[in-house]
């Protein structure tokens, strides 16, 4: 079906369902309940799930298939955002100009960075991409101030040309007049679900991005990329030139990141250099590893898990802890809160660190491997796979 | 005029003359062995043929074209396949995928963007790979992960990966190095079988005299980077210069 085999098509349907029903699925707790703080179904967070899902899906085509670990993908994200905001400034707030522009600009940048960085492999490649991303950050922060507006960040001003903007047109990002900030709230019993136009734009792109990644994974091109990761020496003596393949994978992942950058600017029409900072690149790598490197659905899980923690765990306060553990004897409550407090609120990175460590040590295949193990526990029939796992990459 | 013509090749590594004025001519449809004691320059010579090293002087012509300055993948596209001392295969891929990759390389050249088509729709390539696997008796293992193959099977697989490209010249770099006698004999049988079925040109670099004398039609003896003699196996066996080079090492 639509060029996918049965198993992949099933997976694709699951992702479609998850993406489209996210406003409901991610709000399992009634608004008034004590657990409502753990609801993730609000637009700003769901947009992040989708946008970072796209980045990591693209990143996984490079890192997961070829094994080339780039530490500079935030540069493409940032470049995409700048391109989008410039389209707002020059043409109009219609994202139909902004998003293609962000993809093109990020693509061009990835051709340059990829062409130079791919002269080396392994750790040297990683360092080169890191250096390029940091250079991009420094340029955006200072030297290129006329283009990037330096540390203030780039945004749209009243005196910008906006040549395609008619009288009385919307002054915020829209798609042919459909305001991306429009939202509908639906009350069902104690629950409240928010459906936002902007999120659905991101979700549609996420679905497209995921579909493309399945096609690439199952294509001869994808097989060559896996061969590069497996044994580049043999590939050379098999008549295949690895460089154009890795460069193509690098550019594709750059295009994905550019699209994500454009979507970020579509959700909020301003941007700054900090989007290119190396910690942003590092986060993409973490998401990729946490979810499961080289798997199809891992990137979405990894991006979701980290964004969820950064939004939910970081919002937990000591007052929340007191209300949850108030029923304990006083002395025990004090100890529990004393132990847990460093892990929540500003200390959420500590939680992330612990989760990351646990996953890397106990589930080297990421959250996907965790899911597979749980799946195996429940299925009586063990699939007959050769030792070392199945030959095709797992979902 | 042979299919592979090496003329006056020199290669120095600092003060060491690894190859000194090497001339070699491999005739089409023969099995040509290159033997010599350790350090004789066998591997250096092979690396000059496949594009890993560039000789300081001399010429290497394959099928009427110079291979010098070309990259390994370009030389493969000219029709030279190489089998390594330790089997080089794609360990993260399945057996059938390992054989499909050279098929793609042969059909599509060094690079072609097939990012949307599905591998499973490439019926012709799959059939070609399956026929090849059947040829080396590995069809039943086609979906296995290569990491779990025995060493002998890895060698067969690598051979299949080279042969499926229908090379004009197959280079074998000590195909039995480090093998037990039984495995060595299996490899010899496999090579003989291939030779009979396909009438392929092979150049074998080998240490093991048993392998050499049971297969080769021509033998070149290298010593200290220079060819000592080139002759038929029978003439090589008793050749005084060869005995001298090996210091009686050869047990023929």
Write a structural description.
The complex is a heterodimer of chains A (395) and B (252). Chain A is mainly α. Chain A has helices spanning 6-20, 22-25, 43-66, 73-90, 95-117, 122-143, 145-148, 197-217, 220-230, 232-236, 242-267, 278-291, 298-312, 318-325, 330-340, 348-362, 366-378, and strands at 154-155, 174-175, 178-179, 183-188, 191-196, 270-271. Chain A has a domain at 6-276: ABC transporter involved in vitamin B12 uptake, BtuC, CATH 1.10.3470. Chain A has a two-stranded antiparallel sheet with strand order 1-6. In chain A, a hairpin with a 2-residue loop joins strand 4 (183-188) and strand 5. In chain A, helix 3 (43-66) packs parallel to helix 8 and helix 3 packs across helix 9. Residues 384-395 of chain A have low confidence and may be disordered. Chain B is of the alpha/beta class. Chain B is 37% helix and 24% strand. Chain B is built from nine helices and ten strands. In chain B, the strands form two sheets. Chain B has a six-stranded mixed beta sheet, sandwiched between helices. Chain B has a four-stranded antiparallel beta sheet with strand order 2-1-4-5, covered by helices on one side. In chain B, a hairpin with a 2-residue loop joins strand 4 and strand 5 (65-66). Chain B is globular. The interface between A and B is large, with 37 and 43 residues.
